[in-house]
From TrEMBL:
Keywords: Membrane, Transmembrane, Transmembrane helix. One of its GO terms (cellular component) is fungal-type vacuole. It comes from Talaromyces stipitatus (strain ATCC 10500 / CBS 375.48 / QM 6759 / NRRL 1006). It holds the Pfam family RTA1. InterPro entries: RTA1 (IPR007568). This is RTA1 domain protein. The chain crosses the membrane at residues 20-41, 48-67, 82-107, 127-150, 156-180, 192-215, 235-255. It comes from the Eukaryota. Its main location: membrane. It is a multi-pass membrane protein.
């Protein structure tokens, strides 16, 4: 359980609770591994630089945020650690969400069933990434002000505005993904090849739900400021922020567009069948086939 004491307010670089060392050390390890894996994927799939930027920046910010919490365990009045904690764990998911939007765009380019009338995949991505940029600006500016000048409520207000905008865009995104999922399931190709598409849509849906849960929680948390009761309850923070973002990060790493859709991918636009599926040059399928052959031998 966290311990509290009467220490200076957050505005001078101090927490009202002592972070849990073991738990946050585990989170540091998890995000360090995910960042390392993502850097490897970036080297091999450097052409998908937009996806890589969102993932690497988001994972790096999350890693710095939990490193800061480990530092704050030793000294709650560490001002630099407090600023890292506030900015890192607040901005990290915003970068990850941009990669989430790009995942769906790649899916739309390969599968006509996932597209929406009058909205091209590029426009779909532009609208959501623009909303993500607005969230990033509001949260970034608000987080910086809140971390340095906690006596001024404008910082928290800007952060709440940015997080609320993120909740809105995530809710719209979840609705559109649900529509895509329904269309894909009703597709005439469902039994032959669209299972591959469904895996991507379901993974993106779970990742979006995790982002939505986290954003709603942060809005509720900051409604009372950084000194409020929710902001001092690390157990709830872990359940509604840390774990959802870890799940989201793992899913986005597994759903890397170039990992599933190589440039040699044969688009399934006509009636798909098992023989066509067998001809697809998809890295994920090739690796899974090699794995099963190795196990069988």
């Amino acid at each position: 359980m966290n311990t509290t004491s009467n220490i200076p307010p957050n505005g001078v670089g101090a927490l009202l609770f002592t972070p849990l060392f073991a738990v946050n050390a585990v989170f540091v390890s998890v995000f360090a591994v995910l960042l390392f894996v993502q850097l490897i994927l970036t080297v091999f799939f450097w052409r998908v630089y937009g996806y890589a930027i969102g993932m690497v920046d988001g994972l790096l910010l999350e890693l710095l945020g939990y490193v800061a919490k480990v530092l704050l365990f030793h000294n709650r009045e560490n001002k630099n650690g407090y600023i890292m904690y506030i900015i890192g764990l607040t901005l990290g998911p915003t970068f990850l969400s941009s990669s989430l939007y790009l995942t769906i765009v790649v899916l739309q380019r390969h599968y006509p069933e996932a597209r929406f009338a009058y909205v091209r995949p590029r426009l779909f991505a532009t609208l959501f990434i623009l909303g993500d940029f607005i969230c990033l600006c509001l949260i970034g500016v608000g987080g910086s002000i809140a971390a340095i000048y906690a006596d001024k409520p404008i910082g928290v207000d800007l952060m709440i505005g940015g997080l609320s905008t993120q909740v809105l865009f995530t809710a719209i995104f979840c609705t559109l993904v649900a529509i895509m999922h329904r269309r894909i399931r009703k597709s005439a190709d469902a039994e032959a090849g669209n299972w591959f598409m469904l895996v991507n849509v379901v993974g993106a849906s779970v990742a979006a739900a995790c982002l939505f849960i986290r954003s709603c929680w942060r809005v509720a948390e900051l409604s009372k400021g950084f000194n409020g009761p929710l902001a001092s309850d690390e157990g709830v923070f872990i359940a509604l922020d840390s774990i959802p973002i870890i799940i989201m990060s793992i899913l986005l790493t597994m759903l890397h567009p170039e990992f599933w859709f190589s440039k040699y991918y044969v688009r399934v636009r006509s009636r798909c069948n098992p023989t066509v599926l067998g001809a697809l040059d998809i890295p994920a399928l090739r690796m899974s086939q090699r794995f099963f052959v190795a196990v069988r031998n």
